[in-house]
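ok so I'm stuck.
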Amino acid sequence: MRWLMPAIASVLAVPLSSGCAIDKGTALAADFEKDWAGTADVARIHTTKNNTLPFSGTATGELVLAEGTSADVVSERVAELRAYVARHSNITGRITAEGITFTVVANKERTGEVLALWRSLTADDHVVGGDINDASRKNTAAWRSEITAVDATGAMGVFKDMVSDGGRHRPLSDVTSLTVRSKRGVRPGLSVRTGFDGTLPTEAIAAYEAVVAEQPVVSAGLHPDRLTIVVAEGADPVRAGELARSAAPGLGDAVEVRSVRR
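replied:
not stuck anymore, here's the structure
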């Protein structure tokens, strides 16, 4: 049996490609960095890896484009990355440009839609950042979008634009979970979001708008099934609560209105 030992040792010494690497996620991430290194207009490359089981895993590769990269060049990199992920099914491709990160999928139509949304969001003065991620499951194509706006007014305007066909931003055709919030530290602050299935917070929006029309608001969180509003010191929380519950009768006890805590 001695003659078997050198043969086994030589086999174990052979480098493993990403297709059969023990830590496949690590190998895929390394391949992504190597394949995209030196690409024009790419300022940085970020990767994450997931080594689920021996010889099984996935990776995410993100291309961070240089500041000031033109929209036409972004479109070129998107097309190249789409072709890449179409050839590498275990790699998720993402691009960050002008403060907005989005996932590039193999499907040409879906990627075209998210690129068009990136274009309109980066042209919107109310938007300061965002992340649009593929949230598809086995039988459902979906997106999860999180957008940051300059202030509460901007957040509400961007949200309404993104969920209406006549808005500035064309809605994605797949199910979209959307959150739009004002940037951190801005007062009043606002976070408005859909359900995971895209259900709109229609009553919560109506209640919020009824309150802000009469009472000063510090912050608010709007969901399809609940609402939280914090009114400013000196405001009338009882009156604000009455306004909110009158405008959102379907939310019932899920409406919370309180004064700012000192």
